[in-house]
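seq as requested:
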Amino acid sequence: MRKSVLLVLAVTALLLCGCQKTEIEYQWVDLGLSVKWAKVNVGSTTISGYGDYFAWGEVSAKEKYSAENYKWYDIDQQLTKYCSSHAYPDADSLTQLLPEDDAAAVNWGNGWRMPTYPELMELIKNCQWTFSSIDGVKGYMGRSKIQGYEDAWIFFPAAGFCNQDGSYPGYEGYYWTSTNCGGSNSIQSDAFAFNPSMITTIGFGDGMARIVGASIRPVHE
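C-alpha cells:
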C-alpha cells in the first residue's frame, strides 16, 4: 500500500513539474493587439535568452546555414517551395508558410505560430521602443501604447544571426515572419531587424535571404 502511495506522489510531482515547465516556456504577453506575443524566443526559456536560429521555412536549428544545406533548394540551388516567380521551374505561388514548415507551430504546437508581416507591423507601430538590456543582454524593449495595456512590455534580445561565417549576437537582432516576399524576390522573406540606432522591418520585396539563420518569436491567436 505504501509503495502505491509513493508511486502516485511521484507521478503527481512529475506532472506538476511538466506543467510548470510548459507555463514558463510558452507564456505570452497581451499588448492589446490582434495576437498575443510570446515572451521568449523558440529555443529559450528565459526572456533574455537568444534561443535557436532557423533558416526560413525550416523547423530545426543546425550547425551551418548556407545555400548548400538549405531545405528548399535543389542541387542547382533553385527554389523548390515558396516561390512565386516563373523564373523557377517549381513555382507554387505560396507566400505564407504552411503549418508544417512553421518552426513555432512545429516546435511549440498548441496554437503557436510565427507572426505574419502585418502582425509584425502592428507590433512595431503600437509600441514605444527602447534599446536596453535585461540580465546583461542587450536588445529592444517595446512597451504597449494601447490604452489600458500601457504596463505591458516585450523584450527582443539582440541575438544576431547565423550564416556560413557563424553567429553575430550582442549588437543586432533579426526575427523571421511567416511571410515571403514573393515574385522575383522569393528567395527573401520578411523580417524584423534592429541595431542600437534603429528598429525596422525588412519586407515587401526587400527581405532577408531565407538561407540565413534568424530568431523566431511566436504569436498566439
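The helical segments are 2-25, 103-108, 117-125.
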